[in-house]
Structure formats: structure tokens, C-alpha cells
């Protein structure tokens, strides 16, 4: 029987499908499940108010546990790969920056895909308790971009830049934890709000500006070598950037409100 012909670009992408990144995707899913269960177990032992939370609040509490864990892993790994490993240093290799990847970078992207799959399933199953349509859109765009870069092995420098922005997630989750725990008037809540504002400004606003600057410098390379990735890069990141700006505006308003309240007290 004669097989159906595949476009050359699709064939080259399919050739990269292997056990390494499939294992990392599966590991990301298992990691999310384990940390979800572990968060509930430890919270029941260490936080007296956990058993008084509603079932929906307990689900979100545990969900934010593996969200924080994932954020710490991918933000740390992205920082290492972008700044310390030398993988993307100019002139360090003969390959173009857009073509560079490694076992570590592939593993990080795979774990992140696994996390987003696990989190998306929870969001849809509990919709809209864990997030509305904007979260579905955010996760969908993120999974598409990461998966495309993972199976092609290209443009990983840009995906890692975006993943580094997950460094703000622990502050977002801590704000929710403190709110649920009745600590909105505490100094920790105020300090966390300031750190969230500054972290968001650096990791999700200024870094995105650098992202677009770097992309335009290598504009012709991306378009010629990775056409599908090129059109994805000029469409997906701008949408994420708009979402980040909207959330940044909400964070700024919340910080002003919190600081004003703290000053009055």
C-alpha cells in the first residue's frame, strides 16, 4: 500500500519526534499530579484553615501549588539556558541562534507542555472556577508555541524568554493564598504586591520589549529558515503581550489600592 506523501517541512518535524521529549512531556504531567496531591496533603498538616476551605477553594489551592512549582522550574532553567549556559551566546557555535537547542532545553519545553496540558484539563473540568476564557486562550497559545518549537528544535531562544516570565507566577499565587488566608492587611501581602508589580514589569513587559527587538534583528533568518514559526512569532507573542499589559494594569491598580489602604491604617 502506498503511503500518503507529507510536505518536506512536516517530514523534518516528524523526524524529531522521539522518546526524549515525549518522556519530558509525560514527566510534566506526572509532576503536576504529584505536586497537586502533595500540596493538599502538606497543607492539611501545616495550615489549620485548609480543611475549612470549600471544595472549590481546595482545588484551586492545590492547583496553584503545582503552578508555582512549574514556574520555579522553568524560570530557573530558562535563566540558566539564556544567560549562563552559553547555548545562545553570539558566535559561540557555528549554528544560527534560531537553530540552537539542547537536551536540557528540549526537556524544559517538554515538561512545560506537560504542565500546560495538566492545567488546561483542570481549567476545563472546573470551568470557570480556575479561570475564564482568557486563561484558556493563554494556555492554548502557550502550548501551541512551545510544542511547535519543541518538535522543530527551532526558535527555542524566544520560547525560553517567554517561559522566564513565569517567574512572576509564585507572587501571583502567594497573593491569592494570603487573600484566602485572611492576610490582606499583613505586611507580607503589601511586600508581595510590590514584588509582583516590579517582577511583572521586568519579566513580562521589559523582557517582551527585548524579545521583539531581538526577533526583528533576526527577522530575515526566522522567516527564511522557520516559516511556520515566523508567522507564529508575529502573531502569538503580540497577543500574549496585550494580555500581559491588561493584567499589569490590574496589578498596578491593585497595588495602588493596597498601598493607600496600608497608609490609612
Automatic annotation (TrEMBL):
It is a multi-pass membrane protein. The chain crosses the membrane at residues 20-47, 68-88, 100-118, 130-151, 157-178, 190-213, 225-249. Pfam families: TRAM_LAG1_CLN8 (PF03798). It is found in: Membrane. GO terms for cellular component: membrane. Residues 56-260 form the TLC domain. Keywords: Membrane, Transmembrane, Transmembrane helix. InterPro entries: TLC-dom, TLCD. Its main location: membrane. This is TLC domain-containing protein.
Amino acid at each position: 500500500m502506498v503511503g500518503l506523501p507529507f510536505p518536506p517541512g512536516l517530514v523534518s518535524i516528524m523526524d524529531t519526534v522521539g522518546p526524549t521529549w515525549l518522556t519530558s512531556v509525560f514527566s510534566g504531567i506526572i509532576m503536576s499530579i504529584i505536586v497537586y496531591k502533595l500540596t493538599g496533603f502538606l497543607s492539611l498538616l501545616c495550615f489549620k484553615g485548609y480543611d475549612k476551605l470549600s471544595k472549590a477553594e481546595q482545588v484551586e489551592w492545590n492547583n496553584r501549588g503545582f503552578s508555582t512549582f512549574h514556574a520555579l522550574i522553568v524560570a530557573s532553567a530558562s535563566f540558566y539556558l539564556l544567560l549562563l549556559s552559553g547555548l545562545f551566546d553570539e558566535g559561540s557555535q557555528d549554528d544560527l541562534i534560531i537553530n540552537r537547542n539542547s537536551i536540557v532545553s528540549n526537556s524544559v519545553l517538554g515538561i512545560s507542555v506537560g504542565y500546560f496540558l495538566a492545567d488546561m484539563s483542570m481549567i476545563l473540568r472546573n470551568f470557570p472556577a480556575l479561570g475564564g476564557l482568557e486563561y484558556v486562550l493563554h494556555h492554548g497559545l502557550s502550548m501551541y508555541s512551545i510544542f511547535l518549537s519543541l518538535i522543530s528544535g527551532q526558535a527555542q531562544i524566544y520560547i525560553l524568554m517567554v517561559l522566564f516570565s513565569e517567574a512572576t507566577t509564585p507572587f501571583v499565587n502567594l497573593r491569592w493564598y494570603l487573600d484566602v488566608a485572611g492576610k490582606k492587611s499583613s505586611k507580607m501581602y503589601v511586600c508581595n504586591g510590590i514584588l509582583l508589580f516590579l517582577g511583572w514589569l521586568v519579566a513580562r513587559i521589559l523582557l517582551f520589549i527585548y524579545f521583539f527587538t531581538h526577533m526583528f534583528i533576526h527577522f530575515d533568518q526566522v522567516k527564511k529558515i522557520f516559516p511556520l514559526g515566523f508567522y507564529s512569532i508575529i502573531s502569538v507573542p503580540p497577543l500574549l503581550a496585550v494580555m500581559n499589559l491588561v493584567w499589569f494594569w490590574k496589578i498596578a491598580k491593585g497595588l495602588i489600592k493596597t498601598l493607600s489602604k496600608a497608609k490609612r491604617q
